[in-house]
Amino acid sequence: MNLPIRLAGPLLAAAMGGLLLLALGRELAVWVLLAWLFGSGLSILGALRGRPPWFGGRQRFFLALAGVIAAVIGEGWGNWLPMFTQMVVWLLAVKALELRGQRDFYQMAALTLLGLGIAAWLRVDLIFAFLLLFTLYFALLGLMWQPLADVNQGLSGNLFQWREFARIAGFTLGFVFLLLPLAALFFLILPRTPTPLWAWAPPAQHARSGFSPELAPDSISQLSSDSAIAFRAQITPPPSAASSLYWVGAVLWRDDGRHWLPDPPKMAHGLGPDPATLGKTAAFRQEIVLSPGNGDYLFALPVPRRVELGQPWHQESDGVLRLDHAPDLPLRYTVWSAPAPPQPLSAAERAAALQVPADTDPAIRALARSFAAGGSDNAAVVQRIMAWFHGPDFRYSLQSPSGYPDGQSMGDFLLRTHTGFCEFYAGGLALLLRLDGIPARVVTGYHGGEYNPVGHYWIIRQSMAHAWVQAWFPGRGWVGLDATPATASAGPAGAGGGTARDVVPAGQQWWDWLQWQWINMVIDLTPAKQRAVWQQAGAQLASLARWHAPSLHAWKEQWKGWPSILSFRSALPGMAALILVFLGIVRHYRRRHPAYWRRRAQRHLRPLGPGNGQPGAEPAFWSTLALPADTLEKLQELYREQRYGPAPTARRDHQLALTVRASQRQLRHPLT
């Protein structure tokens, strides 16, 4: 297929732009995306037809100015990040209309890297790292190829040179691989800021499943499932089953008739850190990496007793863990949870846990009295209510029943439809308990998880967001009650639907483990951890300086002491193997090119003293060699084939080297 040599530049620029669009994702406006597709398409079409730049210089200037103004108006002055995102992609589209030479490609590469810098403030995941790596590769390839294309523009045979392009592509790939260890070194050396450069949080999505510190089920007519990861957690000792994992986020006390809100009462006792008591109980240690987007709430199994976190946080009177500021990057913390000793309810707690709206439907009050009929104790009342919720009349659904297009109220759920998601079940259960004189509160968080056996951690998704109830019993304290039907856990994951799977699918385990390691080794490399890495490396160097022939066992112990955060024990051999593979690839491609063997032929002859080795100077040199006629003739033949022949080979190169060494011996010892 005959293609013009000028086509490579627009194709590489289009590839870089496509990777930038993937990195920016949903932050990109539709009109800018269409403009980029139009500009890139015209650029490729112009390269195929040999057309001069599209539009004139003045027209392109006004196009660029119009796009900048549209970005300011569309996103609003002061909304800097989205505004600059649209500007960069629009300028990239306009620049594609005049992409013809090396200078234009330099500007395209600069705009693309600027766009990736903006995208780096929006996302820090592993996929972005790959997008950045591929973009750098295409940029370097274009910058090395474009000068060759410019030189060949005026030639008659102006066709695509596939062999030369493959050579440059291979060299660029090797160059990028060699840069990776250097980039890793700079990553460890350069200081890191403890806070993100830009406070950016995704917009709230009220119609999708996820954690909420409030309960307002009647405002939602349809709830869609979101499989995004809320956090990952390593639990020690391992839990018995995913269904036993209830991750507490917010505790809701006040019911105003349509919403449940936190508003904790003042308590005489708290659940603050108690390491002495913690060591005597069966505690679960949870090392959690929290994704941004859940506000300032931290999650833990009940009941959090001790927390290790490098950012300011506080524990509210009801045990809820909260940050002073919401994180914008993945946040790591460790929490120990254990059963809390039962405490008597204070007057303020009891009043808050029994509060009901004054305008509660009389039919709901009558329903609650029916469960308490007969003067039964609290445990029997709770048993009747739970059996009623788990009966055949109730059904779990993420959609409002037919006839309620704008959403149903709590009265509709309890008295008529008996169909809804976990917020209805939790709010309805707490309301009935309070009407029967049983202190109760609503808890929102997550239920369950997916276990990844590769990294030995649990994945908790937004689709596992859940709401349940805690009721207070004398001598037992707060006891968790979940009225949501158990069938919800067996079906598709939904808000409050529990867990869809207990184990991550086999095809996703390694990919998710790579993302987990990316967070651990790159995103979560804080300044404190960075200092620890270099302190441990310095200690290792100091121990090597005091080396006095240690035993093999001592070497093994020193090797184990390297920081586990960077996995040096596996990274160093891998880097060495990568460098060796690259050198092998470079040598392989060099040996395939005739110029490589011609240079080697010239170097082989150099020990005999051929002068400057200029072509055509050999006859005068041959006459100075006092060699037998057959040896001289063989030397001349091999040299001519390797230096000037059409197809020099490795076999003749080896023969030439042997002949030169034999000639050296004869010149030193003529009688031999």
UniProtKB/TrEMBL annotation:
<protein>
    <submittedName>
        <fullName>TransglutaminaseTgpA domain-containing protein</fullName>
    </submittedName>
</protein>
